[in-house]
Every structure is written in C-alpha cells, then in structure tokens.
Amino acid sequence: MRVAKYVLMTMLAVVCPAVRAGQTAVDSAAGARAATAPPAPSANGLDLKLPLKNGSVRWAVIGDNGTGDRAEDAVANQMQRYWQVVKFDFVTMDGDNIYGGHSPKDFERKFEDPYKPLLDEKVKFYASVGNHDDPDIERNYKLYNMGGNRYYTFNKGDVQFFVLDSNYMDPQQLSWVEDKLRGSTAKWKIAYFHHPLFTAARYHGPDLDLRAKLMPLFTKYGMNAVWYGHEHVYERIKPQSGIYFFLEGNSGELRFHNLRKPNDLDVVGFDTDRAFMLVEVAGDDLYFQTISAAGETVDSGVLHRQGAATQ
Amino acid sequence: MNVLKRIGIFWFGLWLVSVPLDTAMAQNAKKDVAAGKMAMAQLTDTERAQLKAFSDRVKEYQAMEKKLPADKLSPTANVQQLDQQRQTLREALQQARPNAKQGDIFTPDVAPVFRKLFRSTLTGPAGKKIRASLNHAEPIGPRDLKVNGVYPNLAGQPLQSVPPTLLMNLPVLPKGLEYRLVDHAVVLRDTDANMVVDFLTDALP
Asked: CB–CB of B164 and A209 under 8 A?
C-alpha cells in the first residue's frame, strides 16, 4: 500500500510541479518545520524540489568556490545537471571566487573550466568579492558582471539584488546601500556579500561590526533575504528581525564538522560535503533547494515574502 | 584699579574670543557623535586641521594620477590585459613619483592623529566588536611594505577586511584609494595600480 502511494506521488510529482513543491513546503517565517517528506525523483533522475512556475525568477547560489580542485568540479557538475531541468538564468556568488593566485590560468582553472557548460549556455555569473579575491581584477573581469564596481545592484523580474563588498564597508558604500534601498520599488529585495552577519560556524564567527552597520538599514528598508559565505559550510538561519538568512560557503571549500551542535541559530546546517543552492522566486514565494556535491538534497522549502498576505 | 580693570578687560576679551571657538569645536564634535564618529569627535581643532592637510595631500596624489597617460582598468574578459594595465599604471606612478618615501602622506604631524583615531575607536564603545571583526578577518602577519611597491597580496594572501566603524572614523578617501591593514600598519593603497602609496607603522595599538 505504502509503495503504491509512493509510486502515485512520484508520478504526480513528475507531471505536477506544484504537488512536488507542496510535499516539502517549509514556512520558515512561521517557525521552520523540517522538510520530512521523502525525496521525489523527477525528470533526469533529479531530486527536484522547485515548482518551476511560469515566469518565475530562477538562479543558483555558490560561495567560496574558487579552489580549482575536484570538489569544485563536482559541485559544478551537479549545477549543470540541474540546469538541464531548472534552466536557471544566472548564478550569484558569495565571494572567494578565486583562491590563491589570480593569473589568467587561475581564472581558467578555478572558474572558466568548471562552469564552462553553464557559460556556454549563456548563464550569467554575478560575483561579490571575498577576502581571498583580487577585488580590482575581479570587478573588471567581464564574466563576473560587476561592471567595474565593488558593489552594485541588478534586477531580475520581481527581485532586486544588492551586491555588497563586505571587505571594505566604508561610509560611501553604506550611503549607497541606503540610497538604493530607499529608492527600490522591487517586490523582493535580496542582498549578498561575503562576511556572515549570523552564523553558528566556529572558524570565523559572525562579523559583529558589519552586522551593527547593515542590520539597521536592512530592517528599515525591508530587506527580504540575505546570502553570504566566508564560513565553509551551509546554513539556513532562523529569521533575524524578520529577514531570511542563508550561508552558502561550501561550493569548493569545506570545513568538516565546523558547525556548533547543537545551536539555536540554524534551522538546517550542513557541514559534511560541498553544496550549492537553487532558488526560485514566484510571486510572494521564494523556493529554495540545497544540493550536495554528491547530488543529495540537504535542505529545501518555501519562504513567504514578509508583509505579503498569506494564502 | 587701573590694573584690575585691565586684567578684567583681558579676561573678558579672552572669553569673547574663546566662546565661538569652543562652540565651533563643540559643533564639530556634536556632528561627529551624531554620525557615529566617536573617535573623530575627540579631536582638537589642530588635529582636524592636520587631517584636512592629509586629505589635501591625497587629492594632490589623485590629481597627479589622473594626468598620467596610463589607462584605468575597465571591464574585459581578458585577465592578462587587466594585469598588464595595472602594471603599466603602477610603473607610470613610480616614474611620476620616483622620490616618494614613507611619511610623505602620513606625515609625522598627522601620524599621531591617526594613531589616536585607531586607539580611540578600538577602546571606544564599539571596540569589542571591531576587535572581534579584525580577528575573524584572517589577519595577515607582518609584510615588507615599500612605498611605490606592489601591495603584498599577490600569491593569494587574503586582503584583510577593514571594520566599518574604523573606516567611519578615518578621513574619507576618494574613489581609487583605500585604507588597508597589514599587521599593525595602515596602508594607503592605490586600488587600480595595487600599489602602496604610503603607510603608517604601529597605527593599530
């Protein structure tokens, strides 16, 4: 009986993405229920949790990826597999895009080669700079789409992205963030940068001075979600002042068992393999799925836009 | 009586002169406190004047750089070209200021003001957070710093991030120049040329 039900649900999931999304819906704002439904195999044998709604904004998130080693390749391969189905248009990068040297060969080995299949499909990468990056070469490196700027903003559908340089948050950048947030009419405001404001990872910990400067702006102007890296783990953090936070910093580097356990900050933490994220924004919902280098779904769910009417 | 009268007039005159000075100082300090620049608020007028002179020297440097024939970096997919442009700009700067030496911009009279700003910020209300941020930012150890030399981040050493409260309490720099921390030194870095313009040792307590 149980097998028949599973087969039926699987068939439904393949033909009806909404059913699939509903299986694992997590409303973090409402208290973050764990995603407990069994994974549903879908097209191409992928364990896809996104609804793939018409007209939605879809992207992938990587962070601390630029090692140029096999682990980075493994994550990039999974991204390519999922792209075949999800067709995400762009990738956001949480920084530490290139570790070590920054010669032309390094850019090839640590970026252009691993992501070549995606670059060939015209998937755009939007980088933020981390402390291991060469900010002045990378902001001018065309494939990172930073337009020569350390910090910048871009829009995709209902989403406005604010890409910050957390290495050097000077008064000019803070004024810029405030101006751009004040003037934003986007339904979803999403920021990403390198240094974590909240984290349960032990190696660096949160950047408290940065938090003290950014959180008042984020809360005042209605930031919806924030991504960062620096710690080489994955975390979905409990909403802080109503804002959703993700740490995605293990797309190349990994710091095994670095999360404090137990901790009261994370909804989900993952520190035993590399990973990347898929995100889809459709209307007032943000769907996410975190996939390990081995292809396992380690987290997934849906977040409702703050202030929007609940369905 | 005459002597007493004269003394009275002298002190009255002194008070008259000092009131607007005190008010100007207090106003500057008030503005700084309102902007969260707690260390700046503690500066005397003389120290503020020294920082103003520092900012003028920075502007002169930038004006000189703008006149150089070397191209600034602009977006391209060709990393080699970016490297080459950066090197060309650095060489042009080195040729334009062959006698530049440590202390030309962080002059001996402004050096103690910077040290005071760092000390006050790190011992002020946000000091604990700033120290934590500095420790979490993968601080790099001592490096050989040389005016007109390449900033020592080649071969992949991380650039230590600079806590925002520190930056808030230092004179604002124009685009293209930034403060960077190397061990206990603060470096004035030309970003396009990745070059040390000047540095101040023992800036951080």
From this structure: yes
Q: Which of A103, A99, A109 is nearest to A133 (CA)?
A: A99
Q: Cβ contacts (< 8 Å) between A176 and chain B: which residues?
A: none
CA angle A244, A252, A111 (to 5 degrees): 105
Maximum C-alpha span of chain B: 86
Q: Where are the domains of chain B?
A: 1-36, 39-200
pTM of the model: 0.86
Asked if A171's CB is within 8 angstroms of B82's CB, the reply is no
Q: Are A236 and A296 in contact (CB under 8 A)?
A: no
- Cβ of B76 and A107 within 8 Å? no
Which residues from chain A sit within 8 angstroms of residue B77, using beta carbons?
141-143
The C-alpha atoms of residue B117 and residue A231 are separated, in whole angstroms, by: 31
CA distances from A82 to A52, A77, A245, A296 (A): 12, 9, 23, 12
> Residue A143 in contact with residue A208, Cβ under 8 Å?
no
Contact A135 B191 (CB under 8 A): yes
Can you tell me the distance from the alpha carbon of B193 to that of B205, in angstroms, rounded to the nearest whole number?
A: 29
Measured distance CA(B98)–CA(A238) in Å, rounded: 55
By three-state DSSP, how is residue B145 classified? Answer: coil
Which phi and psi (to 5°) does residue B72 adopt?
-80, 160
Residue A24: other Cβ atoms inside 10 A: 22
The verdict on whether omega for the bond into residue B98 sits within 30 degrees of 0, i.e. cis, is: no
C-alpha A106/C-alpha A98 separation (Å) is: 7
Cα distance between the two ends of chain B: 55
- SS3 of chain B: helix, strand, coil, percent, to 5: 55, 10, 35
What is the tens place of the pLDDT at every residue in A160-219? 999 999 999 999 999 999 999 999 999 999 999 999 999 999 999 999 999 999 999 999
Tens digit of pLDDT for each residue in A39-93? 445 567 899 999 999 999 999 999 999 999 999 999 999 999 999 999 999 999 9
Q: Which of B77, B83, B136 lies nearest to residue A205, judging by beta carbons? A: B136
For A205-264, what is each residue's pLDDT tens digit? 999 999 999 999 999 999 999 999 999 999 999 999 999 999 999 999 999 999 999 999
pLDDT in tens, B99-158: 999 999 999 999 999 999 999 999 988 899 899 888 877 777 767 899 999 998 766 778
CA distances, A306 to each of A59, A221, A241, A285 (Å): 20, 12, 11, 10
